[in-house]
Amino acid sequence: MAKKRKVVIVDKELTPTVLKNLDSKKGGWFILLFIFILFGLSIYFLPQISAFMDKKFKNNSSSYENTLKPNKDKDNNSDPVEDIKQYPYAGNLIIEEPDFTLDSFKINNNILAISINNKTNNSLNLSNYHYYLQIYNGNNTLLQRIKLDDIIINAKGKTEVNFSLNNTNITYFTFFEITEDEYPNYIPVQNQNQEAILVCRQNDRTINYLLKDNKLYQIEDLIEVNNTVSNYAELYQKYQAQSNSYNQVIGVNSSINIESGKLKFNTYIDLSKNGTENLNDITYPLDTDAKVMYFELVSKGYRCE
C-alpha cells in the first residue's frame, strides 16, 4: 500500500501572482495585435475544430461502451454452472444418487408411481433434503415440480411412492437437490406498509402466509369439509383431536365449527412464539422468505398466489 502523504492546510490570505506587465511603451501594441489575430483565427476555424472534437469524443465513447458489454464468445470460468441431466421417460428408467436410486417409473390413472431404494446402512429420511423431480413434455415445457418429502426408507430398504399428475404427456424428467438460497425469488403484491399475504390452496385447504417485508410472521390454516363426504365423521374426529393438540402449544389458536353444512377447521399460528414452527407440514419458522413457501408448496401441488 502506498504511503499516504500528509496534507497541510495553511489559513493565510492568497497573494496574487503577476504573469506579465504589458508596457505600451515597449512593444505592447504588438502583443495586443497578436492576441487579436489568434482570436480571429479561432472564430474562423471554430466549425472545423468542433467537428474534429465531436468525432474524437464519439470514438472514445464507443470504445468505452464496448468495454462495458460482456464478451459472449468468451467463457467465464469463474462461475461454473452444473448442467441438470435430462432423463427420458421409460419403464426401465433408473436415476442414481449416492445414497438411493429411483426406478420402476409407472403412470396409471394420472398417478406416477416410483420405487426408491436406500443404498445405505442407515435409515434415510428425504424430508431432511431438498430433492425435486421436474416433469417436462416434448416442447420442454415444465408440467409439474414434485418435492420428495415425508418419505422415510429403512436401511437397505425399498418403498414405492405415488404422486398425482396434472398432465400425463411426459417426455422427460430432471432430478436435482437444491438449497433454499437457490430458490427463485418470489415477492407477492405488497401494500404501502410492505405487508402481503401469500395464499396457497389445495382441495379443501386454504393457507394464508402473512408477510412483512416478504418475511413470514403468521399463518392462518383453514380446512373445510362438506358433511356429505363419506368419511365426514372420521374427519371430524381427526380434526377435533388435532385442534385439541394444537391448543396445547403457546401461540396457536385452533377451533372446529360447523357452518352451512361444512366443518371448518381453523388454526392461527403466531410464529413469534417458540415451538410453533414445527406444528405440521405447512408451518415454517419466523422470518422465512416468501420464496421458500411458494417454491415448496407449489411442488406439493398447491396453487399459490
Describe this structure in words.
The chain is α+β, with helices and mostly antiparallel strands and 305 residues long. The protein has two domains: 86-178, Sandwich (Immunoglobulin-like), CATH 2.60.40.1620; 183-304, 2-Layer Sandwich (YehR-like fold). The protein is 21% helix and 32% strand. It has helices spanning 28-44, 46-68, 232-246, 290-299, and strands spanning 86-88, 95-96, 100-108, 111-118, 124-125, 131-136, 142-147, 152-153, 158-164, 172-177, 195-202, 205-212, 215-226, 252-259, 262-270, 303-304. The strands form four sheets. A six-stranded antiparallel beta sheet has the order 14-15-13-12-11-16, covered by helices on one side. A four-stranded antiparallel beta sheet has the order 1-10-6-7. A four-stranded antiparallel beta sheet has the order 2-3-4-9, with no helix packed on it. β6 (131-136) and β7 (142-147) form a beta hairpin. The longest helix has 23 residues, at 46-68. The chain starts with 27 loop residues before the first helix and ends with a strand. Residues 1-24 and 56-81 have low confidence and may be disordered.
List the helices and strands and how they pair.
Elements (H helix, E strand, L loop, with lengths): L27 H17 L1 H23 L17 E3 L6 E2 L3 E9 L2 E8 L5 E2 L5 E6 L5 E6 L4 E2 L4 E7 L7 E6 L17 E8 L2 E8 L2 E12 L5 H15 L5 E8 L2 E9 L19 H10 L3 E2 L1
Antiparallel strand pairs: 1-10, 2-3, 3-4, 4-9, 5-8, 6-7, 6-10, 11-12, 11-16, 12-13, 13-15, 14-15
